[in-house]
Amino acid sequence: MRVAFQGEPGAFSEAAAMQLLGAGITTVPRTTFDSAFRAIAEGAADALLAPIENTLAGSVVRVYDLLLESTLVITAETILPIEHHLIGFAGVSLNEVQSVASHPMALAQCERFFNARPQVRRIPAEDTAGSVRQVLASGDRSAAAIAGKRAADFYGGAILAENIQDNAENFTRFVLLRPANSAAPEGSKISLAMRLAHRPGALLASLEPIALHGVNLLKIESRPIHGQPWEYQFFLDMEADSLEKLEAAVAATRDAVSELRVLGRYPGARAHFASVPDISSTK
Amino acid sequence: MRVAFQGEPGAFSEAAAMQLLGAGITTVPRTTFDSAFRAIAEGAADALLAPIENTLAGSVVRVYDLLLESTLVITAETILPIEHHLIGFAGVSLNEVQSVASHPMALAQCERFFNARPQVRRIPAEDTAGSVRQVLASGDRSAAAIAGKRAADFYGGAILAENIQDNAENFTRFVLLRPANSAAPEGSKISLAMRLAHRPGALLASLEPIALHGVNLLKIESRPIHGQPWEYQFFLDMEADSLEKLEAAVAATRDAVSELRVLGRYPGARAHFASVPDISSTK
């Protein structure tokens, strides 16, 4: 299977694709989310793996937007711990490092490392994995980069310091997107996008069937609709212990809203990760 | 009034502070959100202006986290259109520009500009306003940066191309944070953080009073609670046409949840910006 992702080879998205589908896949790196979403239509990929939310940074709004514009559906998900390592030349000691390159988000997630080393220069880059490639290509042994283990492996860098991020609870949820006709939906988790009728209590009415059918609401988020002032879109993830409950809840929710789109039904990855929460209190 | 913000002088946050409070304020730039949040306790500022959500990028999760950790409250909000300009040396034509520096988020929001000019080198920076400062300090007339108008004015740069962002609907909502005892709450908008009891229908029960009292729900978002797997926090913004309705709804919601914290009551800025939506359909 050929799987497109946004980023350079060695990126967290590529690591997530291999975690989900095994090392036998062919990964197709693309520079932007827009071009990654075009890869299937262009015949360059069979599927697309995209980050959809991160525990520290929230939802990846651009991916939600592109998902709504596309006809692709979510067929699987996987959750990857984001572990930032300091990567450089083998044999270099931490004291010899004079500059550290990475994406500003990764630099900002390692404040404690930089605060303890005020002499180290921060060098912003467009990509975490790409910063490893650039550092190693420069030949400058005092330079290092912040990225994931896969980037170190891919470019032949050495890990000079492990897990230098401030917050250990850094997880990203990735979704696998495929053409709707490529596989039958399976699994007990479902992602929806819905719009509400213009009447009082419309949000409440849309959530009642979910509670009524004993379905767990895992996520809810309101988002303004581009180009339609005063209109909001709601994104919901939910999971049930039986397909019947899930289908009954979705059917009743559909009746309660003005527009409902199933973004995909797939097996929830949560059960495999004890540290990743659900909203079990809101069933 | 001394107002702290995250970023370099000329940043969008500084422009937002002046839009809200006038040009007579003293702005206090800080390099990180963490240090900006410490500025009041350190006696360096009387208030803090922070971005809380952007129409293209979603909620600023780090600001929500720091707000929850602090004892500050929201006392006002302001909405700023984010207009990215190409800024460089006066008299330089667009064809002479060979490199463009900015924060990767700003670079990514100007894809169309770069697609039309494949020869232009993208240079990632940690800050939009800071990239203008660096370009002008370099003396290299072929270099330019992407930032807001205030950065051009502040550093004496010339706008070489106006509004080069792909999506014109780019707005950021900023909130003014002050110590809780600094001013009485006023206005008809309220921001809440709440946690739910562990029982079926808890989310539904928390939203019922809002509908019952005819209060508009402007935003709802679920977020995992750091360090507490399986627990979620909900953030809500709501607005009413009378203070009585708002207070009745908050009191009843408080009874329906296990924990409720008012993050602030303040006048809603929305009315002044026709293109910024509410969730009027969900009253």
What's the CATH C level of the largest domain in chain A? Alpha Beta
| CATH topology-level name of the largest domain in chain A | Alpha-Beta Plaits
Coarse morphology of chain A: elongated
Strand/helix succession of chain A: EHEHEEHEEEHHEHEHEEEHEEHE
Q: Tell me the quaternary state.
A: homodimer
Termini separation of chain A comes to 37 Å
Query: Poorly predicted ranges of chain A (pLDDT <50, ≥5 residues)?
Result: 271-283
User: How much of the polypeptide of chain A forms β-strand, as a percent range?
Assistant: 25-35%
How would you sum up the major sheet of chain A?
6 strands, mixed
CATH architect. name of the largest domain in chain A: 2-Layer Sandwich
Number of helices of chain A: 9
What percentage of residues of chain A falls in helices of 4 or more residues? 25-40%
Q: What count of structural domains of chain A?
A: 3
Most extensive interface: pair and counts? A-B, 58 and 58 residues
How many distinct beta strands of chain A?
Answer: 15
Name of the CATH superfamily of the largest domain in chain A: ACT domain
Radius of gyration of chain A: 21 Å
